[in-house]
Amino acid sequence: MDNPITIVFNGQDRQISAGLTVEQLLQEAAINSRFVAVELNGEILPRDQRNQREVQARDVIEVVTLVGGG
Fold first, then answer.
1. pLDDT tens across 22-31, in order?
2. Are 40 and 8 in contact (CB under 8 A)?
3. Is the pLDDT assigned to residue 38 strictly greater than 70?
4. Taking the mean position of all CA atoms in its chain, how far away is CA 7?
5. Residue-wise pLDDT tens digits, 43-67
6. Are 21 and 55 spatial neighbours (Cβ–Cβ below 8 Å)?
7. DSSP assignment, residue 21?
8. Structural domains in the chain plus CATH codes
9. Which residues contact 51 (CB under 8 A, 6 or more apart)?
């Protein structure tokens, strides 16, 4: 892992490669991004920004799975 950075991912410290986008992080974590909401540093990150926003050191990312039901 080149130039690792530390983030908080779903409540756990995690080291990742610098330069990953949020979408790439989801892929690396084997999370289907179609069915989740992503909170980045306390704010919901719009789906259309996930490929643009690079993860920064000390970012706090929470991923919530969307569940249907009645």
1. 999 999 999 9
2. no
3. yes
4. 9
5. 999 999 999 999 999 999 999 987 7
6. yes
7. B
8. 4-61 (3.10.20.30)
9. 21, 22, 23
